[in-house]
Amino acid sequence: MSKKRTAVITGSTSGIGLGIARALAENGYNIVVNSFSDTSEDRAITADLASKHGSTAEYIQADMSDAGQCRALIANAMEKFGSVDVLVNNAGIQHVAKIEEFPAEKWDAIIAINLSSAFHTSAAAIPLMKEAGWGRIINIASAHGLTASPFKSAYIAAKHGVVGLSKTIALEFAEARVNATCNAICPGYVLTPLMEAQIADQMKVHNMGRDDVIEKVMLLRQPTRQFATVDQIGGTAVFLCSDAAAQITGTSISVDGGWTAL
Ligand code: NAD
After folding, report:
1. Is 113 in the pocket of ligand 1 (CB under 6 A)?
2. Nearest atom of ligand 1 to the alpha carbon of 189
3. Is the CB–ligand 1 distance for residue 174 below 6 Å?
4. Is the C-beta atom of 35 inside 6 A of ligand 1?
5. Ligand 1 center to 215 CA (angstroms)
6. Any residues with CB less than 8 A from the CB of 31 and at least 6 apart, and which?
7. What pLDDT is recorded for position 31?
């Protein structure tokens, strides 16, 4: 890369987003770290990322449940760094309940944060990428973007939507004849703070120890019986940004220990 490229990763103060931010920082990108909060911890995470990986990192607060803030995130990143070359739509939340008991406001929040935010950030970033002639949009979907489970209606609807959105963006980039791609990464279970909370809940529900819950409940659908790691998701994102991946577009890459092969 002659000029340093800039990567915006939504929801990147924790878990998979932070793993991707680290991996891209290690590979020479300027990084925009994002979350909805505005705390000294958010800024400390960003400073740590920059100092450990010798990269430039900025924290930009923006709530991905708000269309205007999604678009402002891209505009602010452009203003700070002069380009938005990589956009990783990662921010996401979960709620588990039967459809007939699923709170309507949780449905709306999950669709907004897990799906609509990717539309708004992409709509703001795509003209910049077309103008620059290069770009990568990576949407963090899920094995639940390709398969379903009970009690996760909003999450599964949103993640299937993200897979579809990725295909459409890819086709519009292709029409524009620019070196820009869009793909979804579909992780199986990854050990993150989001997942730790689910393990704790399942230990109570099943009256089991942590190891039993992990093996007999959480990883039941993951044939390798191992969690994917945030570093593996980060490595996949780095690969999708590479020249080797220039013809990989409009598809989804599963990092799920064989879940979707079953
Ligand atoms: P996490 O809870 O560790 O991190 C989520 C991040 O999103 C945090 O930085 C949080 O601050 C941010 N966020 C939440 N609401 C936001 C909002 N309104 N605006 C801006 N940022 C917001 O979760 P994670 O496990 O790292 O999940 C990251 C993504 O990966 C999500 O889209 C999730 O659906 C997906 N995913 C996770 C797993 C897994 O097993 N952990 C599996 C498949 C897909």
Report:
1. yes
2. 40
3. no
4. yes
5. 23
6. 6, 7, 9, 12, 21, 24, 25, 46, 49, 50, 55, 56, 57, 58
7. 98
Establish whether residue 64 lines the binding site of ligand 1, counting it when its CB lies within 6 angstroms of any ligand atom.
yes
What are the structural domains of the chain? 6-189+229-261 (3.40.50.720), 190-226 (no CATH)
Give the residues across from 59 on adjacent strands.
33
Ligand 1 centroid distance, CA of 221 (Å): 20
Q: Higher confidence at residue 194 or residue 65?
A: 65
Residues assigned a catalytic role = 155
How many CB atoms within 10 Å of residue 132?
A: 17
**Average pLDDT for the chain:** 96
Q: How far is the CA of 175 from the centre of ligand 1 (A)?
A: 31
Rounded to the nearest angstrom, the distance between the alpha carbon of 195 and the centre of ligand 1 is 10
Written as six digits, the tokens of 203 are 């230990």
What percent of the chain stands above pLDDT 90?
92
- The CB of 65 under 6 Å from ligand 1? The reply is yes
* Residue 81, token pair as written in the block: 């760094």
CA distances from 20 to 137, 180, 213, 235 (A): 13, 19, 27, 8
Q: What does each C-alpha distance from 47 to 10, 35, 233, 257, 259 come to in angstroms? A: 17, 15, 22, 33, 36
d(CA 126, CA 85): 9
Q: What is the pLDDT of residues 107-118, one digit of tens each?
A: 999 999 999 999
pLDDT band (50, 70, 90) for residue 2: low
